[in-house]
Amino acid sequence: MSDNAIVITGGLLDTISAKTAHGLIRGTERFNIVAIIDQKHAGKDAGEVLDGKNRKLPIYATISDFLAAGKSAKYCIVGVATKGGVIPEALKAILRQALENKLSIVNGLHEYVSDNEELAALAAKNSLEIIDVRKPKKVKDLHFWSGKIKEVKCPKIAVLGTDCSMGKRTTTRFLVQAMRKAGYKAEMIYTGQTGWMQGAKYGFVFDSTLNDFISGEMEHAVVTCYHEAKPDIIFIEGQSSLRNPSGPAGAEWIVSADADGVVLQHNPPRKQYKDMEFYPAYLPDPKDEIALIKIYGAPTVALTVNTAKMTEADARSYAKKYEADLGIPTILPLEDGVDSLVPVFEKMIHAKK
C-alpha cells in the first residue's frame, strides 16, 4: 500500500504492549508511518523513545493534534496489544475519532473493529476501510498439509524463541535484510499480524488459524513463496515457544515446514513466561531448548540475545560465554545487527545446490 499511516499506542509506547508499534517504527514496506499518537510521549521522536535512534517520526498526543499540525494520513493502525485482545472503551473512543476524521482502520487485535456496530456504521458512512488483520480465512481457502514442502530446495530457517515477545519477528526481518544486502534473494514468512503490517508478502496469522490447518497453512506459505519468489533462503517468523504453557508453538516450524535450521532467541533475565509469573513454569536454559529442538529434527545454528533489562556489558559477557559453551554464533541483534551470521547461511545455501 505504502499509504501514509499513523499508529496509536495510548500511552504504552515505551512498554512491551506496543510491540506492533515498535515493529512499524523500525520499518514497514506496507505503510508509510508518518506519526505515532501517544499522550505520554507527545513532542518526542518515536525512534528515540523506542531505542534512542532518531527516526524523524513525531509523536502527537491526539489525532486532533496531528491534524492541527497540517499532517494527513489514510490509515490509523492499532499499535498495541490489549489484555485479552479486546477493544477497551478508551481505544474505542480513539478509533471513533479516527473514523470521524476520514481515517481507515487497521486492527491486529483479537476483537474485530468490523464487529462493532457503531464503528462499522461510521466507516460505511464515510466510505472507509476496516482491516481486521486477525480475521480468519474461510475454510474453503485453508490448506491441509500435503507433503509438498519437499518441493522447496532452498534452506528454510525457523526463528524461534524461548518465550513470546522475544523479538523473533525483528530478528527475522534483520536476517532477511542482511542476506539481501549480501546479494542473496531472501524472503520472510510472516506468522503474526505485525509481520503482515510490515509488508511481508507470504505467510498467515498463526493464532487466528483453525488448529487443523496450521501445518497446511505453514506449508502452503513456504511452498508458494519458493515457487513465486524463487528465493535462495527463507526465514520463518516464530511464535510463542515450544514450552509456553499458555500456547506452545514451534513444532510446526520444524516438522511441518521441514526447517533446515533454527535461530533461537533468548532473554537471559526473563525467568518465567510473559504474563505468567503466577504459574510455576520457568524458561529453559538455551542449551536445554537447543537439545529439544534437535529432537524435533533441526539443528540450532545461532543463538540471538534479547538484551532487555540487561546492561550491554552483561549481555556481551553472556553472549561470549554461551558461544563458547554451545559452539554456535551468539550475537546481539539490536546492538550489532546480524551480518556476522551471513556466512552461516551462505554455507547452507551452497550445500543445497
State the total count of DSSP E strands: 13
Helix and strand string, N-terminal first?
Answer: EHEHEHEHEHEEHEHEHEHEHEHEHH
Report the CATH C-level class of the largest domain.
Alpha Beta
Q: Remind me, CATH topology of the largest domain? A: Rossmann fold
Shape by Cα distribution: globular
Quaternary structure state of the chains depicted:
single chain
Helical coverage, percent range? 25-40%
Strand order of the largest sheet: 9-8-10-7-11-12-13
What integer value in Å does the Rg equal?
20 Å
> In terms of per-residue confidence, which ranges show pLDDT below 50 for 5 or more consecutive residues?
none
Keywords:
single chain, 353 residues, alpha/beta, Rossmann fold, 2 domains, seven-stranded parallel beta sheet, six-stranded parallel beta sheet, 13 helices, 13 strands, 35% helix
Short description:
Helix content is 35%, strand content 16%. With 353 residues, it is of the alpha/beta class.
